[in-house]
Each structure stands twice: as structure tokens, then as C-alpha cells.
């Protein structure tokens, strides 16, 4: 498949303007989630599957739709 | 007709005594983008949607009730052994005054559930676009709760629920594609 969805990132960032008069210290980079369903279109047949016992834990049968979420601000603090 | 399976869709484990998390989780119970709103929205829209996608709305609407059950279990576990004093510290004293430990369909700010949270326009594209938006909003709500929560076991269940929102959104998007399809033209993927 051209433009394989796996080449996309599931988390995007942007910067906000911070004035010297702003009361709080800048939070820095802002994050937003762009999960794989935004890119897949109509799901093609015969895609790779998780093992059933794994799929039940992950919440999807399809690796192409799997998107593990972690608090992006937490990661930054560490 | 439904058949009830006497177990949760995904195990719910809570490892820390933190009733404050219950205050956040109630948003997904009786809030505008919560599981109750989702279930009622889909199971009502399905009557007036083209045949090809009725089954999808039935399946997803049904699953939303399974999610509602998981959220209820989380809230119950987080509050059942809390003292009134602990509930006060957690900021759910107003809930306690009205409901004791009982669950109730309201959002994190205490606004009771209302049918105005959902819509059935009768136009298949309008309804499915609302459903896609609802899934993305629920996904975002789970993210914000995970961001606020430091309970690893609770977050594990919340990540499962978030992933289901991603999959549901995908299926609703495919439903739109099915209804958009130009029947006599060649499909190009």
C-alpha cells in the first residue's frame, strides 16, 4: 500500500505564543492525538492480525489500528 | 433482544484508593460524550439508517453498554469503601448528599444526563458524522482522564476503552464510505 499509515505519527505537536506578561511559566510544546483511524480510509482486506488473546487485551484485532496512549506531558517531565 | 453475559468486556482493576478518580470517571458515565449517551444515540439512530449499516449501529450501541458497565464498576470500586470525609476531600460531597454511594447519570460537574446530548437527524450522513465526532470526543475524554490518573491498573482499562473508540470511529467512517459509494462506478482503493 502506498502511503502506509504506519509512516504517520499518532501524536502531533504545536507551539503557543508566550508573552513576558503571561502569569504562568510556559507549558511548552502542546500535544494532540491523531489516531490511525484518521488515515486508514476503508480498511483493506487481509491485513495482519494480533493473536486472539492479545487482541482481547489491546482492544483491537488489527495492529494497523492499535494506538497506545501515554500522557505526553508526563513523559516530558521525567 | 439482548443476551447478557455475566462478565465485563475487559477486567477492571483499581490499585489505589483515590475517590477523586471517580469524580472524573462520572463524566464518561452520564456526560455528553459518555457511554450512556453513545449507547442511546446509536441504538436509536439505527431504525432510520440504510440497511447496510443498521447492524453496525446495533453492534456498537450494544458494546457501549458493556463500556458503561466497566465505568460503573470503576466508580463503584473507587467509592464503596470511602468515608464521607474522604468523599468530601475528593470533591464529591455534593454527590454524597444527594445519592450516598449510589451511581447517578450526571457529568463530572454534576449536571444530570439529558437527551439533548444526543441527536437523530434522520439524514444518514449527518447522523454518522455525529457518531464519528462522538467517538473522537470520547477518545479525547479518556485521554484527559488518563492524564489526570496515576493508577496504572485503572489506566490499563481506560486505554482499552480508548482503543475501542478508535476502532468505532474507523467503522463509522467506513459506514460513510459505504453510503457514499457510487454504485455503477469502478471502485479504486
Explain what you see.
The complex is a heterodimer of chains A (78) and B (189). Chain A is α+β, with helices and mostly antiparallel strands and 78 residues long. Chain A has one domain (5-77). Chain A has three helices and two strands. Chain A has a two-stranded antiparallel ribbon with strand order 1-2. The radius of gyration of chain A is 17 Å and the shape is elongated. Chain A starts with 10 loop residues before the first strand and ends with a helix. The mean pLDDT of chain A is 87. Chain B has helices at 20-30, 35-45, 51-79, 84-89, 93-99, 124-148, 152-180. Chain B is mainly α and 189 residues long. The radius of gyration of chain B is 18 Å and the shape is elongated. Chain B has seven helices and no strands. Chain B: GO terms for molecular function: metal ion binding. Chain B: Its cofactor is Ca(2+); Mn(2+). Chain B: Mn(2+) binds at residues 35, 64, 67, 135, 168. Chain B: Keywords: Calcium, Capsid protein, Manganese, Metal-binding, Virion.
Question: What are the defining features of this structure?
Answer:
heterodimer, A: about 80 residues, alpha+beta, 2 strands, B: about 190 residues, mainly alpha, Ferritin, calcium (chain B), capsid protein (chain B), Mn_catalase_dom (chain B), Ferritin-like_SF (chain B), virion (chain B)
Largest interface: A-B, 24 and 21 residues
- Report the β-strand fraction of chain A as a percent range: 5-15%
Topology as H/E string of chain A?
Answer: EEHHH
Report low-confidence residues of chain A grouped into runs of 5 or more.
none
The count of strands of chain A amounts to 2
Organism (chain B): Filobacillus milosensis
GO molecular function, one term (chain B): metal ion binding
Family (chain B): Belongs to the manganese catalase family.
Binding site for Ca(2+) (chain B): 59
Amino acid at each position: 500500500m502506498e502511503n502506509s499509515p504506519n509512516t504517520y505519527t499518532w501524536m502531533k505537536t504545536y507551539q503557543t505564543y508566550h508573552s513576558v506578561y503571561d502569569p504562568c511559566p510556559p507549558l511548552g510544546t502542546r500535544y494532540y492525538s491523531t489516531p490511525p483511524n484518521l488515515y486508514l480510509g476503508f480498511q483493506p482486506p487481509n491485513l495482519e492480525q494480533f493473536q486472539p488473546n492479545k487482541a482481547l487485551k489491546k482492544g483491537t484485532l488489527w495492529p494497523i489500528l492499535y494506538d497506545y496512549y501515554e500522557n505526553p506531558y508526563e513523559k516530558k517531565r521525567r | 433482544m439482548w443476551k447478557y453475559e455475566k462478565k465485563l468486556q475487559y477486567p477492571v482493576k483499581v490499585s489505589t484508593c483515590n475517590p477523586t478518580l471517580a469524580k472524573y470517571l462520572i463524566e464518561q458515565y452520564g456526560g455528553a460524550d459518555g457511554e450512556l449517551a453513545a449507547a442511546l444515540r446509536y441504538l436509536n439512530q439505527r431504525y432510520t439508517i440504510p440497511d447496510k449499516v443498521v447492524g453496525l449501529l446495533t453492534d456498537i450501541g450494544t458494546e457501549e453498554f458493556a463500556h458503561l458497565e466497566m465505568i460503573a464498576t470503576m466508580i463503584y470500586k473507587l467509592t464503596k469503601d470511602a468515608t464521607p470525609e474522604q468523599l468530601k476531600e475528593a470533591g464529591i460531597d455534593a454527590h454524597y448528599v444527594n445519592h450516598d454511594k449510589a451511581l447517578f447519570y450526571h457529568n463530572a460537574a454534576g449536571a444530570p444526563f439529558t437527551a439533548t446530548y444526543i441527536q437523530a437527524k434522520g439524514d444518514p450522513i449527518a447522523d454518522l458524522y455525529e457518531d464519528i465526532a462522538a467517538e473522537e470526543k470520547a477518545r479525547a475524554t479518556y485521554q484527559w482522564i488518563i492524564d489526570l490518573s496515576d493508577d496504572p491498573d485503572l489506566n490499563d482499562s481506560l486505554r482499552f476503552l480508548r482503543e475501542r473508540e478508535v476502532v468505532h470511529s474507523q467503522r463509522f467512517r467506513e459506514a460513510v464510505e459505504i453510503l457514499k459509494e457510487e454504485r455503477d462506478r469502478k471502485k479504486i482503493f
